[in-house]
Amino acid sequence: NSNFQPLYRTVKGLMNARKAFEVYARICFPKNHARTETRRQEEKEIDYDTFIEHLVDKKYQAIMGYQEYLRDNKKSDKADIEALLKRFPKLEIVYFDYDNNKSVHIKARPYKLRPEEVKLNDYTESLPILGKSINPGKGGGQNSIMKFIWADIGFMLDANSYIRFEDALKLPLGLGMFNTNPDLRILTFTEFIYTHRLGWKAKAMAY
Q1: Inter-residue contact 163 to 14 (CB < 8 Å)
Q2: Is the whole-model pTM more than 0.70?
Q3: Contact 80, 101 (CB under 8 A)
Q4: Residue 40's pLDDT is what?
Q5: Contact 7, 159 (CB under 8 A)
Q6: Which pLDDT value is given to residue 38?
Q7: 48-57 and 34-43 are packed helices; what angle lies between their axes, rounded to 10 degrees?
Q8: Distance (Å, rounded) from C-alpha 16 to C-alpha 192?
Q9: Sheet of 92-97: strands edge to edge?
Q10: For the chain, which has fewer Cβ within 10 Å, the N-terminal or C-terminal residue?
């Protein structure tokens, strides 16, 4: 666990959370219902599925801070990012470009119009909030990503955590508590640390 992180499962957990929001959106806006059709036309979406995607896009942002472990392996890093976005097209990725001293934000939107081959068609570049990090570790990665988070409420997830779908269904209801209690500032959820079998450090973190 100190040498690598099996990141794909972590990202899949982020997608499980999005899937939970999509389920709630479909419950709130049933297909072919008059209220749904009225709202879909207001949002100017051409069909039901893209309408649901649009509603969830306004509520949920899955964004990953990509931390380089081997800074000299640029071709591999780029291939990894493209592979992640091809497997999870509703993901956004931020990494820090140490050669050019700037954060790079990549997303493959609009994914409903995306061809099968990955085309990273939306780049945003910016300096991190606190400037260039001296140490490219966890703090540097978090510093790079913060400027690109647009949500009012953030849910931070470490790379060794996984959101199971049944747990993800609790998130929309949990977030609703912020609407009913204006004094609420922090809401905690238990973490499923799936790397506990990789070594004693991982087991200690999962305890």
Answers
A1: yes
A2: yes
A3: no
A4: 93
A5: yes
A6: 95
A7: 70
A8: 13
A9: 63-66, 92-97, 102-107, 122-126
A10: C
